[in-house]
Amino acid sequence: MKSNKKIILRMLEKHENSMSAKQIRAVLGLKKSATPKLKAELQKLIKAKKIKKQGTHYFIIENLKVKIKENVQNESIMEISSKTYIK
């Protein structure tokens, strides 16, 4: 299993609600045998203070939501500006 940290962060930001490891695994299309590796990756994100865990559910930290939205807006602005032509 390759590293899915960015995908997990974007998925949690998109869903806005907390998700269990089983739900995350299903969205990523991983087999049940990949659960330990997924949980280890989630633990790394918790230690990096990018996500939080409450019970069995994981959710994104509010400060990170703002940063992700700003990055997405900047990327879309750059994409639009690269498509515009100067006459």
Brief overview:
The chain is mainly alpha-helical and 87 residues long. The chain is built from four helices and three strands. The chain has one domain: Orthogonal Bundle (Arc Repressor Mutant, subunit A), CATH 1.10.10.10.
Architecture overview:
With 87 residues, the protein is mainly alpha-helical. The chain is built from four helices and three strands, in the order αβααββα. The chain has one domain: Arc Repressor Mutant, subunit A (Orthogonal Bundle). The protein has a three-stranded antiparallel beta sheet with strand order 1-3-2. The protein is globular.
Keywords:
single chain; 87 residues; mainly alpha; Arc Repressor Mutant, subunit A; three-stranded antiparallel sheet; 62% helix
Proportion in helices: 55-70%
What is the CATH topology classification name? Arc Repressor Mutant, subunit A
Spans with pLDDT under 50 lasting ≥5 residues? none
Mean pLDDT level: 79
The number of E-state strands comes to 3
The portion of residues forming beta strands comes to 5-15%
Strand order within the widest beta sheet? 1-3-2
The arrangement of helices and strands along the chain is HEHHEEH
Tally the structural domains.
1
Return the structural class: mainly alpha
- What is the count of helical runs? 4
Query: How much is the radius of gyration in Å?
Result: 16 Å
- CATH architecture identity: Orthogonal Bundle
Layout of strands and helices, then pairs:
Blueprint: H1 5-15, E1 19-20, H2 21-28, H3 35-47, E2 51-54, E3 57-60, H4 62-83
Antiparallel strand pairs: 1-3, 2-3
